Amino acid sequence: MAEHPFPRRLRHLLEYAVVRVLLALFASMPLDRASALGARIGRLIGPRLGISARARANLGRAMAELGPAEIERVVIGMWDNLGRVIAEYPHLGGFDLYGGDGRVEVVGIEHIDRLRDDGIGAIFFSGHIGNWELASLGGTQRGMPLVHVYRVANNPHVERLIQRMRAPIGGSHHPKGGRGARALLAALGRGEHLGLLIDQKLNEGIAVPFFGRDAMTAPALAELALRFRVPIVPARVERLDGARFRLTVMAPLELPDSGDRDADVLAIMTRVNALLESWIRDRPEQWLWLHRRWPKDG
Q1: In a domain, 139, yes or no
Q2: Are residues 192 and 144 in contact, defined by beta-carbon separation less than 8 angstroms?
Q3: How many Cα atoms sit within 13 Å of 248 on the Cβ side?
Q4: Treating both helix axes as pointing N-terminal to C-terminal, what angle do 68-88 and 5-27 enclose, rounded to 10 degrees?
Q5: Which domain holds residue 184?
Q6: How many domains does the chain have?
Q7: Residue 294: inside a domain, yes or no?
Q8: Residue 218 and residue 204: Cα distance in Å, rounded?
Q9: Is there a domain that residue 293 lies in?
Q10: CA atoms of 231 and 249, how far apart (whole Å)
Q11: Does pTM top 0.90 for this prediction?
Q12: How far is CA 70 from CA 150, 164, 166, in A?
């Protein structure tokens, strides 16, 4: 039975009030203190929430070598990282990736500069790892703002708040769906650059191996790259310690050209998922294990 509109509106207002108070608190603190407080709140509350059962189940299936104690350690670490990400949103405008303060180490600046100046578009991809917003901020602060698509928050008040928090990232953000797809096509047609987070399930996608099991994966990254013959660029964000990070921008992936478009799309997305998996295995506590990424019986 559908929820009645009035209780839903009331719940949205209450959620918004809590989120706004928390973000105001984080904004009132220096970045390191805010990040640390976000981590403490995440560790205290997150593992006790019902949704953490999904994270534990995902970990048990994807990384079967982990025992119960190791799984719990990763789940607690995941909530630590997520709490920090939320607390860092009000401070995004204060990050200076190329200013030399050492908070963010950037590896592969030469790839950013070359792609910015070569006169054609490119597609940067990452996942919900570390503080994933820093990948896009790295493009903006190097004179290459990115065009994004994203999943709109269920709560419209929180959605508007999130978009205000994202303002320092620059570029443009478009909701997933037809509008977002048209925005991506138009951007590549103008020689602009895209930033995509490609680690979420898409029921209408294609089956691609991920942690040894097929996962329904959005093929848009590969389809757009093949259509416009633009580079696909991996961008990895790692949290090193507290609110200190490494952003690694890698050399573009080689695009296949077998003459079989479907086979080429699958080959690209298999390579992309393998890269994501390697990043996650390296720092599993920094990935958002809460997604419905695989079939329950997979």
Answers
A1: yes
A2: no
A3: 14
A4: 80
A5: 5-286
A6: 1
A7: no
A8: 8
A9: no
A10: 13
A11: yes
A12: 32, 37, 34
